[in-house]
Structure formats: structure tokens, C-alpha cells
Amino acid sequence: MSQAAAIADTPPTAASLKDAAAQLVDLLKLRTLPIGMKQFQSVEEMMAIPSIRTPTKGKHFSTCQLVTQARVHGFTRGITVANVRGNSNCSAVIGLDSPHEDFLNGKRMNGVWFDNQDAARMHQETMPRAKAGSARGVAAAPLRSARLDPPDICLFYANPAQMILFVNGLQHHRYKRYDFTITGESACADSWGRALATGQTSLSIPCYAERRYGGVADAELLMACPPDEFLTGVRGLAFLSKNGLRYPIPPYGATMDPAEGLSKSYG
Fold first, then answer.
1. Dist. CA 21–CA 41, nearest whole Å
2. Is the pTM of this model over 0.90?
């Protein structure tokens, strides 16, 4: 059995996801680390994870800062409602609590992101979120650390060319059409919020806040998917690579005969 097939046939565990993450980084030449995210009903259980840290008392993170510390610096980080702005989009998207009424009625974002309060209210009303109170703590850690066994979802940032190849990998063995959502600002709702809430693979265009506070690069997209789909995507991507469909994609030329290029590019 090939390494890729073995990865796909293994139920999602910290160990199998660690191997898959290493293979994904190699195949797509990722700039930062694939990570896992997990909700916890008990803060004590979350704090038992080796090397986990939470913000200093009195300090707060946005959730995108938590994710960045894990995927860029390799840290294992945890947050509770005490570490993130409570009753905000940050805390509500990951299920720690519900948004404040000033968010839900549109007052908070009216005149900033939106021209009128009704548009701001609709933004909140249609935003994907994990169920309020579904977690008391949320942790993020690089998959290579194997500290979340298993995580609820796996995440990685990649450019559009890398991302479409991963989607091709997801579809390689058993085709499925994927539909993704665009909330606009608070795009974390379209990635980890939607994936935690529905268990569906979710692709997002990172928003202003992720770029300002999370340091997301201009060309980066964010994929969030359940562990089994992460393994499926890596397996398919490995098969595509063997067929010559690799990253970086070699340009053939806009003035060349594409039929001739196809005959030379695959295999």
C-alpha cells in the first residue's frame, strides 16, 4: 500500500494527521504550518495539553491572532472567554458565547463596514457560527505537534494555485462539488466557524481583521476541514503529483498549442 493510501485508510488520529501535514507541506511548498483547532467543554482538560499557553491575565487575543501564533510560530495556544473579547464575533464564532445585542441588531458595525443598520444586522443574522456555549475553551496547535488527538478541524493557509490542487485532491477518489460562503468582514465565520458548526470543508477569503491582526498575506486563502477530509485531500494530492500535476504549476505559454502541452505535462 502506498504512503498516501495508508494515510487515507487510517482513522484520523494525531499521528496520522501529523504525517499528512508533513506530506502536505512538502507537496504544496506551504509557507506556514497546517494546524488543528479543538473545542473543549472543560478548561481544565484544555489546559492539560502539553505546552499550551493562554494570554497573560488581563490581555486579550483575537481568534486570528491565536491561529497565527500556531501556524507561523508553532505555538500551542488556548483561549477562553476571559482571553478574547466576550460577546463579540471572535468569541461567538467559535462557540464560547453569543454576540452582544449591539452586534446582532447591527448597531456595532453600522457606519463602519455598512451603510445602514439593516445591512449590518443582516451580516450578523447570516453569519455561520458554532453553537453558543458549545465550548468553554478552544485550542490551536500545529498538526506536527500531535497534541490535539484528534482536532475537530484542520486548517492551513495557501495561495489560490496551491488551494485548487488541494481541492482537486479532495475530489480525486470520490467526486463532490464544494460550495463555499463569503460573509465579508468576520471571514473566520466562513472558515473555522462554518467548519466547527457544520463539519463541512470550508474555504474562505481572509478579511480585513485577519490581515491587520493575524498577519495574513495578500495572496493567502484559508482552508478548514474535518480531519477525515484533510486526509482524503492529502491522499488525492499525492496521486495528482504522481501524474505530474504538481505545485508550482509550470506555465506552458499563452501562445503555444495546448494539445501539445497536455501531452507533455502529464505522467
1. 26
2. yes
